[in-house]
Description:
The chain has 246 residues and is α/β, with parallel strands linked by helices. It is 35% helix and 17% strand. The chain contains eight helices and 14 strands. It has helices at 15-24, 40-49, 62-74, 85-93, 116-127, 151-162, 175-184, 198-207; strands spanning 6-7, 10-11, 31-33, 59-61, 78-82, 97-98, 105-108, 131-134, 140-141, 148-149, 167-168, 192-195, 211-215, 234-236. Strand 7 (105-108), helix 5 and strand 8 (131-134) form a beta-alpha-beta unit. Helix 3 (62-74) runs parallel beside helix 4 (85-93) and helix 3 packs across helix 7. The longest helix has 13 residues, at 62-74. It starts with 5 loop residues before the first strand and ends in a 10-residue tail after the last strand.
Amino acid sequence: MDGVLAREGEMVPGADRFLAALRAAGRPFLVLTNNSIWTARDLANRLQHTGIDVREEEIWTSALATATFLKDQADGASVYVVGEAGLTSALHDSGFVITDTKPDYVVLGETRTYSFEAITRAIRHIGQGARFIATNPDPTGPSPEGPLPACGAVMELIAAATERRPYVIGKPNPVMFRYAMNLIGAHSESTTMVGDRMDTDVVAGMEAGLRTVLVLSGSTQERDIDRYPYRPTLVRESVADLVDLV
């Protein structure tokens, strides 16, 4: 989503035409994000304010992927959550009980206001046997004032304190893409990932067996590509250059 369809609260030029082309061709798609703060409904509203028409059901977040993973692994388990509405809503909707009393899992997500008290409780629950899940590995997130510590940075703090590594659901874990493909009935041989980051989007798409398109409208620039031992299938300036390929 960020860096592909929108950037700094503005639509990437041509993103609306790209989505219109997908719909006109009858191509099912999902918009993916590692951000677990917002619900899909919130994100759809935020995109609409930039001029991008995406429905709630066309958005797939790391919070939704995390809830799906836990439902597959431990349906009905209890969880202690460090995160915001996007994560707590996804877990509630999947039938999980959120508790601070002997939880089966600690689930760490994104929040703009990480609480030292909440992190301390998470550490103690993990020390007492709770299993550790994180929504995504991103160490920082953007803000108008500059980078903010994000899930990946706090994950490392908790891991150091507990000597327990979490299982991380979001990109670059290809499981997030596999769940997304199941949701729209897609097959890896006929699915393409379009992303702006080599270290999360492209590698996850490649490991999920997809064709990958790197757009240069976000994080990774063309000069950065050769730093990685893998390459995308295609490189384009933005999604505006993909309209004719749909």
